[in-house]
């Protein structure tokens, strides 16, 4: 059959030909891609030649081109525009892909060649990136079980297949449950507090989802839904929170226990006491003790902050609703907004008219990147994305040379999973002669036709954050695809994106984009000042909410031996884990509960959700460096790009940090930022 995925795209930058790709193309492309790569591996092993860097390691880097191409396209689609057909393909292919990976990394002949090169790596005369690549492949093979005996490898293959199937089921259950848990109301009065545009969007959403005449507010994949800050009706807020916290309980709770048990067995098989130890050994943290020390240092001051905030919110609530009013989880965000508005005269709704999506994107996100790195971004209306809402932009360097493509997929829809993320459709590589094509996915509520998309301050932060990931991919300048862009340890990957958030409220950037969508008037200076004053308000809540999720993840993956979870009840486990960790606050549920914790049960963050705050230590320290006045922002941007962003995983990430900062990271800037230190 004719299949557009079989060959490299002829479009600019090898942008996939989305207008030609159909669901029926994916499985044949996956199957041909796996067969081609296994044939390439067989050629490496059976060549009869002594192993060299070129005929073994470089050959592995060049293998699987078709498989990489179809996987990049398909898994972007399955997360951003899924259908029953893509769900079925995902369920079929995930265990087959896990088996395919095992067929490569458990190939004894291939490992023998890699091990020989690893042992002789100092004699090979390689440059730094080549030497690191040899070490990287050896590490991959060992962590994949290449040193296990035949029985151990047999069991590991079974575990990997089971885990791949379970993760796919978990992910699809979340999408189903999140759709089903949407708030459906029959009276517009139930939505008092929402902006008129949001109410209109809820009516349009209802029509799309088959609830004509009603209003539907879809949920996002977090515990504390953003609408809880706005809905005035307490009973409606309670409905939202109850639905949010209950997602996944009926199906995914038991599935989470099974996944955690399988991972615990996997870790034991590979010689680690638990999955957390296995996972973190491959990260910059290196040891569970290092993670324990950091999280333990943050919990007491964060909880203290949150308790002080709770007392203040309770007082405001009781002054309004009576002394018997009890602050609950569905009240926190609502009363937090009221107290913020009263104390700092900062009203979230008052900000929205100054935060129109297209202006924030062009005059904020892109403008900041131009100021810091010298790049320009131009929209390409002639290039087609994978959905009508996807926009395609070409990115040019300071000297006018082409860098790559950026795709923006900003609005929520029923076929898209919750959250925000960056994908690479094409990774930069000197070896393969490819330049980057990257995607940012967000879940901004789409306004009714003809209405402007007015953002919350959190939406703006997410735009800047995700574009930080995009820049990491776009600036990649490495030889080997294994090191391209965001191919860095998980507890380092969030660092560049968090740094990029700093530009959102830098005066010259904010003044360039924060303009009224109707009048063009700039955001009033006094409002900007009040925002700056209010910045730390609510840090106790935000830190405890995050730590609850990070410590819950940690608890699920510190279990020794899969049998230890036999007879476990997920909700009981969760309650006990949060209590033991010291972050059990009924009014602040963790950012993710077990049943919808996609990061750890259906994605790559198992035993790694700590990464966000681990990376934030580096981020806060780097923000301080950018602002110390020792050189211009443009000059520092060049250093940050050259020494860190461009290097991807081709150097030790902490060495890259030190080459920028001039020293190892310090935690004090983070403690100050989060209000955990004077």
Summarize the structure in words.
The chain has 678 residues and is mainly α. It folds into four domains: 12-105 and 107-143, Glutathione S-transferase Yfyf (Class Pi), Chain A, domain 2 (Up-down Bundle); 181-246, no CATH class; 252-346 and 537-609, Neurolysin, domain 3, CATH 1.10.1370; 352-533, Orthogonal Bundle (Neurolysin, domain 3). 55% of the residues lie in helices and 6% in strands. The chain is built from 26 helices and seven strands. The longest helix has 34 residues, at 288-321.
Task: Summarize this entry quickly.
This protein is mainly alpha-helical and 678 residues long. The chain folds into 4 domains: 131 residues, Up-down Bundle (Glutathione S-transferase Yfyf (Class Pi), Chain A, domain 2), CATH 1.20.1050.40; 66 residues, no CATH class; 168 residues, Orthogonal Bundle (Neurolysin, domain 3), CATH 1.10.1370; 182 residues, Neurolysin, domain 3 (Orthogonal Bundle).
How many separate helices?
A: 26
Query: How would you sum up the major sheet?
Result: 5 strands, mixed
Indicate the percent of residues in helices. 40-55%
How many individual domains? 4
Strand order in space, largest sheet: 3-4-5-7-6
Q: Give me the CATH architecture of the largest domain, please.
A: Orthogonal Bundle
CATH topology of the largest domain: Neurolysin, domain 3
Write down how many β-strands occur, each being a DSSP E stretch of 2 or more residues: 7
Computed over alpha carbons, the radius of gyration is 25 Å
Shape: globular
Determine the mean pLDDT. 96
Quickly give the structural class. mainly alpha
Instruction: Identify the CATH class of the largest domain.
Output: Mainly Alpha
- Our estimate of the beta-strand percent is 5-15%
